[in-house]
Amino acid sequence: MNADFPPPGPSGPLDRLGQWMRASKLRLWLVLGLCWLVGCILLFAAWIGVAILRGSTERDAAGVALNLVLVVFLAIVCLFVTHRAMYRWFWHVDRKRAAGKLRPGDADPAYASEPTQPPPRIAWPWALRLRHALIYLVGVTTLVYVFAPYDNQRAIVRFLIAHSAGPSSAGSLSELIFGYVPMAFLAALAMILTSRQMRRRDAGLLDAHEKLVLQAELSWLFSFAAAFTLTMFLCRWVGSMTLAYL
User: Fold this and answer.
1) Cβ 85 vs Cβ 219: under 8 Å
2) Within 10 A of 180 (CB to CB), how many other CB atoms are there?
3) Is 109 in contact with 89 (CB distance < 8 Å)?
4) Which of 113, 170, 226, 237 has the smallest number of Cβ neighbours within 10 A?
5) CA–CA separation, 32 and 18 (whole Å)
6) Confidence of residue 245 (pLDDT cuts 50, 70, 90)
7) Does 149 have pLDDT greater than 50?
8) Are 69 and 42 in contact (CB under 8 A)?
9) Are 229 and 176 in contact (CB under 8 A)?
10) Whole-number Å distance between alpha carbons of 164 and 47
11) Closest to 140 in 3D by CA, of 88, 187, 77, 202
12) Structural element, H or E, at residue 182
């Protein structure tokens, strides 16, 4: 393995739990079932709590409360967890390329189709730490601002219906607006933010540590783009389901 791809970072409690789960399907289903049960209990309790705190007697009060709880959960918890998983997977694919297991032009393996090792521990410069914090702040705020208000979810549905020829085209329009567009925008932003360091790398002006930080930053930004796009699509799906059934 070359200098740009150091050994994996130390295994944490989640890695040890994953190894324990993979040893038996019974363990896997036991842990997943427990997580599902605890998650449902917490979300249900939050739903009731928000509904009581709002004190609304409107017909759609339950839908408003549920949409708020689910969107906030997705914007904070799901975005963070998905980003960590994507970041780890991006490092896994990069390691395979560096080891020659993926040749140029080969398709990447399907996500989560292979066991992965922890990403290397990176000594992030303070400027990149600040950038990451700002990106998360803007990302979470955007998701909550766009999808948490129930009226916004209604407006999105009306827009999709008004500008599509039917359910199938409405789904395609939704994928375009809440999938491909944000992904393309965030990918372009990642390239802009790293363009200076990439030019310096191509000119041979970066040492081994700086190359590692650049590779980690690229993985961080592109994995955030993938996680944010998935979370945005889930927030939209939650809104459509809430409007349809509550």
Assistant:
1) no
2) 11
3) no
4) 113
5) 11
6) confident
7) yes
8) no
9) no
10) 33
11) 77
12) helix 181-202
Residue type present at position 173: L
Distance separating alpha carbons of residues 116 and 189, to the nearest angstrom: 27
The helix (run of H) or strand (run of E) holding residue 62 is: helix 61-73
25 CB-contact burial (10 Å; exposed 0-12 / middle 13-18 / buried 19+): exposed
Closest CA to 43 of 80, 81, 71: 71
118 has pLDDT over 80: yes
pLDDT at 11: 67
Task: State how far the Cα of 132 lies from the Cα of 136, in Å rounded to an integer.
Answer: 6
Nearest to 120 by CA among 215, 200, 199, 19: 215
Cα-flanking dihedrals φ and ψ of residue 116, to 5°? -125, 160
Query: What amino acid is encoded at 59 in this protein?
Result: R
- Whether residue 60 contacts residue 246, with contact meaning beta carbons closer than 8 Å, is answered with yes
User: Residue 216 is which amino acid?
Assistant: A
d(CA 5, CA 69): 40
Residues composing the chain: 246
Quick check: 73 and 43 in contact, CB under 8 A? yes
Give the gyration radius of the chain's Cα atoms.
21
Strand, coil or helix: 111: coil
Q: Is residue 57 within 8 Å of 190, Cβ to Cβ?
A: no
Q: Are 118 and 12 in contact (CB under 8 A)?
A: yes
Residue 37 and residue 165: Cα distance in Å, rounded? 40
Which distant-in-sequence residues (6+ apart) come within 8 Å of 68 by Cβ?
50, 148, 150
Which amino acid is it at 180?
Y
Percent of the chain whose predicted confidence (pLDDT) is above 90: 48
Distance CA 62, CA 84 (A): 32
